[in-house]
Amino acid sequence: MASKVPSSEMKSTKGTILSELLPEGGPARCQLITEKESVEQEDHPRARYQLITEKESLDQQDKLRRCTFGKKDQVKVNKTILIVGETGTGKSTLINAMVNYVLGVEWKENVWFEIVEQEQENGEQTESQTTGVTVYEVFGYEGRRIPYSLTIIDTPEYGDTKGIQKDNMVAEKLLELFRSEKGIHQVDAVGLVVKSTTNRLTERQKYIFDAVLSLFGKDIEKNIVALLTHCDGNPPKNALQAITAAKVPCAKNERNHPVHFVFNNRQCESFDAEYQERLDYDHLQEQAWNQGLKSMERFFTFLNNIESKSVRMTEGVLRERKQLEAVVVNLQERVKEIEGKQKELKDTLNVLEKYKNEMEENKNFSFEIEKIYKDKILVDTSGNWFILNQGATICTVCKENCHYPGCWWAFNPAGCLVMEDNHCTVCTNKCHYTKHVKGNVRYVLKTRMVTRTYEQLKHKYDISEKGAGEKENVLIRLQKGLEELTNRKASLVEESYQCLINLEKTALKSISLSSAKHLDLLIEKMKETGDVEKVKKLEELKKLAEEEQLAGYFQRMMIHIKRPY
């Protein structure tokens, strides 16, 4: 158990919190949500106030923002919670309850404060609330109930009808938050919000948890806990079994059950004044409030004891995932180019064999072959309204696409995710970032028919000998060229394989990040190298990937069936 804050350090909050936040003659730090008339009643329901926070957008699209209440003390400890949950589980109420606990709100004060912004009058929330990531910070209340300040990362719902594109954007925004100098650099707990009455996780919930947990490394597993809401006091046996059955990675207790905390979500409730007087339910509400305090105390004690985890591994997992995707796409293009060159050499060999006599009689003998070459085209950025700097990072030396598609983060090559130690991890020569360009063009492979002569071949392969041996030398050079291309293909396949294996070792939910088509390509090309063990390993990963992909497909289908519009 964590050591509690000494009573000598605890401040009395009874009857003072509202006067602190609404001081006479000073700036208001909260504003009334409920109607004024109801507050002025002698036996009024619990008054609700919206905390006035300092808002800051951390990106250009306002999809990543920070809401700060209080002034940060750099000397004092801060704890960070990432909250994930399906709409309807009580996630916003739970966040508000945590903030009230930190503020030190007491039952008899008859007030309730909210940090999560309310819906607008038309019942809708702003676009940034429903699709973006919000960071809530509460400073200045260390020592009231907890000895540290609190940061809560609130993720929007995943898997809704806006599709995978939005879900990927939320993942990218988390990465942006972790990478930013002004962002979050460590996480103390990941809270998976589930109703305590849940008998099984829905397709939607599985999709939500998988989407978020796919971002983290394996070192975060002991920091992942279940936050069970709407608990009526009975043991949440079914909910725990549902989490276990869904194979959700999380911390386990001595009974091998998911580490969990239960909340009743009733602290903010208020009974009608007349109804309270008539049936005297006030004591039940107070019991619910006190039970909520005990639940919060248990959770924040856990948070005080748990070891913080740096998000560097998270960033590393995401970076390596992006690099894997970029390497595989680049691999496909380079293999296609190599195979085009192999075809060109094979066609040339066939011509030399077939027209050997004609070439001996005619030094100007010519023939046509199909030649592969690279061209530049404009990048199509339509449909990516939420990404202002979509495009491609290309290498001007290797003439390759180093990051396309998905190069959304960087405004210049130096900041591209495929760069490490100022060099590209993708292009053939691993060139310096200064040899790259981030823009709206990319390379594509095309073919055209070209005319060749035997004399051109001799010049190309530097064959100066005369007589019967020169054709054999040309053939030898062509065969050697084929062997070099084959070795280059094998090297590319090995590079992609190692990237995939490294991702599997570090990622908490790695398989779901590797699409079946990428594995198919690797298996096909690895078979050409003859490495049986690696082929077997890739086929095992493919089987797992197909299971994940099939499950995800049905999850998304069920979501669309339940919410077709």
TrEMBL record:
Claim: Magnesium is one of the keywords in the record: no
Coiled-coil region list: 314-362, 468-495
GO molecular function annotations of the record: GTP binding
Superkingdom as given in the UniProt entry: Eukaryota
Keywords on record: Coiled coil, Nucleotide-binding
Region ranges (Disordered): 1-22
InterPro entries to which the protein is assigned, alphabetical: G_AIG1, P-loop_NTPase, Sigma_54_int_dom_ATP-bd_1
Biased composition, class Polar residues, residue ranges: 1-16
PROSITE patterns, alphabetized: SIGMA54_INTERACT_1
Keyword NADP attached: no
AIG1-type G domain: residues covered: 79-249
Sequence similarity: Belongs to the TRAFAC class TrmE-Era-EngA-EngB-Septin-like GTPase superfamily. AIG1/Toc34/Toc159-like paraseptin GTPase family. IAN subfamily.
Name this protein carries in UniProt: AIG1-type G domain-containing protein
Organism the protein comes from: Esox lucius
